[in-house]
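User: Structure tokens for this complex, please. No commentary.
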Amino acid sequence: MASSTEATAPAPPAQVDRHSAQRNLYAQYRRVRQQSDRISEPLTPEDCVVQSMPDASPVRWHLAHTTWFFETFVLKQVIEDYQPVDPAFEYLFNSYYNQVGKQFPRPRRGLLSRPGLQDVKQYRQAIDGRIEELLTGESQLDEGLLQVLELGLHHEQQHQELILTDVKHMLSCNPCWPAYHLPATKEHEAPAELSWITGPEGVRSMGYAGNDFAYDNEGPVHEVLLQLHELASRLITNGEYLEFVEAGGYRQPQHWLSLGWNTVGEQEWNAPLYWHQVDGQWCEFTLAGLEPLDLAAPVCHVSFFEADAYARWRGVRLPTEAEWEQAASARDVEQDGNFVESGLYHPMPARSSAGMQQLFGDVWEWTSSPYTPYPGYRPPAGAIGEYNGKFMCNQYVLRGGSCATSESHIRPTYRNFFPPDARWQFTGIRLAR
Amino acid sequence: MASSTEATAPAPPAQVDRHSAQRNLYAQYRRVRQQSDRISEPLTPEDCVVQSMPDASPVRWHLAHTTWFFETFVLKQVIEDYQPVDPAFEYLFNSYYNQVGKQFPRPRRGLLSRPGLQDVKQYRQAIDGRIEELLTGESQLDEGLLQVLELGLHHEQQHQELILTDVKHMLSCNPCWPAYHLPATKEHEAPAELSWITGPEGVRSMGYAGNDFAYDNEGPVHEVLLQLHELASRLITNGEYLEFVEAGGYRQPQHWLSLGWNTVGEQEWNAPLYWHQVDGQWCEFTLAGLEPLDLAAPVCHVSFFEADAYARWRGVRLPTEAEWEQAASARDVEQDGNFVESGLYHPMPARSSAGMQQLFGDVWEWTSSPYTPYPGYRPPAGAIGEYNGKFMCNQYVLRGGSCATSESHIRPTYRNFFPPDARWQFTGIRLAR
Amino acid sequence: MASSTEATAPAPPAQVDRHSAQRNLYAQYRRVRQQSDRISEPLTPEDCVVQSMPDASPVRWHLAHTTWFFETFVLKQVIEDYQPVDPAFEYLFNSYYNQVGKQFPRPRRGLLSRPGLQDVKQYRQAIDGRIEELLTGESQLDEGLLQVLELGLHHEQQHQELILTDVKHMLSCNPCWPAYHLPATKEHEAPAELSWITGPEGVRSMGYAGNDFAYDNEGPVHEVLLQLHELASRLITNGEYLEFVEAGGYRQPQHWLSLGWNTVGEQEWNAPLYWHQVDGQWCEFTLAGLEPLDLAAPVCHVSFFEADAYARWRGVRLPTEAEWEQAASARDVEQDGNFVESGLYHPMPARSSAGMQQLFGDVWEWTSSPYTPYPGYRPPAGAIGEYNGKFMCNQYVLRGGSCATSESHIRPTYRNFFPPDARWQFTGIRLAR
Amino acid sequence: MASSTEATAPAPPAQVDRHSAQRNLYAQYRRVRQQSDRISEPLTPEDCVVQSMPDASPVRWHLAHTTWFFETFVLKQVIEDYQPVDPAFEYLFNSYYNQVGKQFPRPRRGLLSRPGLQDVKQYRQAIDGRIEELLTGESQLDEGLLQVLELGLHHEQQHQELILTDVKHMLSCNPCWPAYHLPATKEHEAPAELSWITGPEGVRSMGYAGNDFAYDNEGPVHEVLLQLHELASRLITNGEYLEFVEAGGYRQPQHWLSLGWNTVGEQEWNAPLYWHQVDGQWCEFTLAGLEPLDLAAPVCHVSFFEADAYARWRGVRLPTEAEWEQAASARDVEQDGNFVESGLYHPMPARSSAGMQQLFGDVWEWTSSPYTPYPGYRPPAGAIGEYNGKFMCNQYVLRGGSCATSESHIRPTYRNFFPPDARWQFTGIRLAR
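Assistant:
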């Protein structure tokens, strides 16, 4: 990001700098907001209504909620006597910020047919106009406010990923297997054999240390003690995971955590979320519809329970988040990582046989680390403090981003987190030992 | 209906008669199908997606299912090598006909964003075109097939009523109280005092005896033994029901059936379904949005449990369906009954002080009669036989139609039925003693 | 009962009569109370704790609740400044009498380990002592009070039957199949072919018309209109029902009411409640443990749904309660009926080939009649009025008593009632057409 | 334990040593088994039946399951052609060992009235007899087998604690508040002010390093990196926690983890599990019945969610398990710790004002550490390997034992674990910062 580069340049006069930062931020704002429009473009108004499970939200809600964030935490704070676009939106589009007010119950979001998709688009345009005025006008905005605005952009990127995963889940409930986009038709060769790469041992530093944006949960920087370990050079493929399935892995309790085994029974799991056997052949529901299972591609839509059971079945384990971060910290977020910008919306096979691959993009990688605060962590004061800290319970950390993540959203220190039974995100497996 | 008039005219040559009957039926077909379009017209595509509870269905589903009925039970039966509009619809839009095939699970109808509203409209047009060909062509159709087609029209009228009640329920889940149509603004005077009208005693005939269409459950004609009784001259008003509410009726178990009292507790009932207290004033959610409670209008959206408890609180009872039918059989379905054709979509106060009023239209009237087969009743053979008989358990009979019913749909012998806790239909109270 | 005989005798001086009635009632009291002890005798303290489902109650609760009835509705009413045996019992052992006070929640009765079985026995003895004083003392008791006391005895007989059915259900949850009593070991021959016996047609009288005890729901006497009909001469046997099972009856929706078919699926029914296939052979859990299925004995522990589906499969129907009562009214409750006094605790095959058999005892016979009030029925005032009327919803009438019923408890007009999915009572099938 | 002392003594001839070890183990066996009898002694047969929630088990089940452990993992392994006491017990009393066979479903344990308490006692005696033969006989047992037997004793001590907590929960469901033992009647003075004691910083060793018994989850010994920190000198008292309650802590979302706040709402928590307000006074249900809340005693029966929220409200945090273990490793398990041997069955106020107190006994102390495997941990092979590892998900570590724990059961490295919403154990709060 621009401000990072500037930070190392000789300090310009403060006023000029602030104006320039505002203009840069506005350019970023437009890019991020347009990306939301872009991924929503293939969707019908009807597609934007359905909430296919309590964990998912209707697309219209995502589009409105991310807008509500800017209205609530930026516009309302800075504009005197602010007139909201619609007073009802304060209630309808608050997700979980108790300090801002009551929330329309999450599992009931799919009951709302209004405001409709056009209304939500107008809401977005109205707020975009006000933000434009604010950022491109004469006045210099408070540093804290600019930080919240930047937070809002990262927040919107997170919801862009959720739009794709929630739409995928919604379409998967339809027995006609509708497609979100046209299928890519290339065939893939099996990737090279998985190799083991030794990681560093001893006391190392961990957490975000830069000057750019990072979430509160990526800090404070602190020291961790690493044991001797090795990481797999690439992700586990569908073909490798299929061996576990066909060896009876879903019927053998010894591989599973106790809660995982309960879940296997209750949810009647016998394969990853979107795998289906059609006329004896394994297929996978994708955003391009139902496709034959690509054995070379990374396994995807597995829960922590499945990732852990697979590792145990192979006699190894999942990496800790500290181990993962050490491996990743040496690398740039790869230019050729398979992020949402590729337009593939699906993980792709490893392309090389040398060195560590696929750390970024493709699928979020489950770690063995419960999602806990780093030593000394304190959530920020106020409603913004409800962003991360209060979810640090019964979730596991995932790293690296996926094919539904924006490349600009990811850092080596980035911590994503989901409960151990979640499967509708693009989640996969890297082994450690 | 036309065929009824013809039945009393001198019999024409059979072939001419059949052709004329087909043309009449086609005219009726167009009228009924256009009515579905008319009531869907105010709805957005988003409105047509939501399923707000398992008992309700999305509007798109109603529009497609009624069309599926004609495709499945008429077109497929008569056209050789019939090519369905879409093979998936056979599964998606089957409601509960086990003999026709598997059904997409009812509680999941709201998960389908596709086919969209436009697709469903095209489906309707495609089937309408094929039906037009069939009915206006040269060939004479089998009598049984014409009966099934007529059944399909009455079936569609039932779903038209459900569209309105399901939309009302869906909109009521929205804290913004959206309106389906513009409010009517007249003020109403309180109706005349309720009087008691003595009904006939002894053995009487019951059930449908004419030559027009009637459902299987309205027959066979049979004799019933009536006790001495009186019926109330009009429906119970909101004002009268409010006395029960304010006297603590919802907190006093002695008025309630045991199951009703459980339901009051579990559902936290304290007034009819769409009543709300706003700033100390009672309001009612209507298809025109939230309105002040009209004390003169009939109470509406009460369950059998509430109707029964109210009657008990007043020391009287609900009518049996035999008593109701005797009172109604003497009368034409009133020309001025408040049916869906009035465009009011809400029950209206009784307009006269003399004689029996409001038997037809306004609200369905709960009877004390469990929904059971008449003596000698047998459901028809085949899938059509799944229409009525299999629901004869744990439901109560309602009579007379409502402000959401088509006038042409109702007869004195017409039997509607719902479980005793159902409240989302336009259901009200007539007393007996 | 004594008072019935006296009613036809010349009227004695009122005072003597009253004293004699009290003494007779006390004799009856002792017989009924001792029967509760007798059937509880084979049970361990542990057996008397478990509540195996919300519909069932622990034996200790039944023993205490029937005692509570006498304490609450007799002793407290007549003894000035009555000191309860334990004030907590008023709350713990109230079943559903809202007018007497709050109730310990029914589904939690199995959570109470105390008072223990000995404590409950002492409670019974304490109340028995006070009742003895009351009835055998000098004072003449109010006629209404004697009626309530008599009601309490019939109430206790009902709970004696529930003790047996609840114990049977509880033991059936134990994979070791424990027995309540020793098995009877006779072998049975198949009964004679079922024949059809014509019942009366036209207007007939129905309901209890005598001077002895009867429940409020057996009256008022009123006229009913009977259609021409025939009743089966005996109950359906296990062998006959097995044909339905083996013909796939539990997998074919066309025989079932819609709610019944849902229940078959949700509860995974594939045979009557206590049938089990062990090594390919059909067995039945009985109060004597697991036994090979006796094909000659009446089928038992079927729900209304199953009884109705079986009748439909055979092309016939269940009797109405009016038809059943006409057949039964001509007969004494048979001397050789298989009631609880036989000590068999299981239904037995029909013993004769001539005429109507098994109307009384063996199994309760499902009728097609929903449980509704007779015309003119009003529940008694006060808490006693909560006994029957408030349950008149979503239940079906059963007639004739079972092998777990006391012979002295049954009359031709006796109306039992259970929801259509209940199976843990001794319930069976008589056909009609 | 004996073997520990011996380990430092000059090595005796192996054979003698083994015999002596067997004799010592048998003495230990008798002590532990007798303790189970002792704590069950105040219970009635009825008390030993109830399962008051799915997490709890009936006392009879605990007594039988601990016995089953010895039968299954010791006797069956070593005795040829072993004849089980009752073949059904293998199924009934298996808790969760999938590798040993199927298990009777845990939530249904309360449905079993048989085998009764006497039967279970006989089962215990039978197994005790066979173990006595085995250990006191001539033959020298395999070292691995002795280890399993020792594991069985620690396993039984765990269930002894569960007997007390499950009985407490069961009695708490009884509105009569029955007591398990007679109340202790001393009054307590408030403890000294809480002070903060600095812990060690840097790389430290953690995990069990001795030669005595320890669970697999206490190893391997490994290094951890500690931050600078302080621990509170004593446990939080009821009085201190009451301030949180009265300040509205249960109504303010900002103190709570998101899952915790959901739980507060769903479970309607407004105080620790057994606190009740009676006539405006706070009371606490104890194993001695309902008692006025002792403000000086440690708060007890709080969940992790409550412990965490309380710490947050005070601006501090809970200790990590590494911090706790460092503090504890310097100390013997205190001679005067309030363990089950005290017979108080309730936590007691801190008795001194100097130094670290109450680390052992009184209440289990919630740490902030999710229950995860130590680096390099692998569960043992076979069924015994199902003991600890498979539960390492969505649970938090607790340390130090409670007033319901045997003193001989606890070590500084001992790791207990429960889900964050569990409250029925004796769990309390020590703060850190």
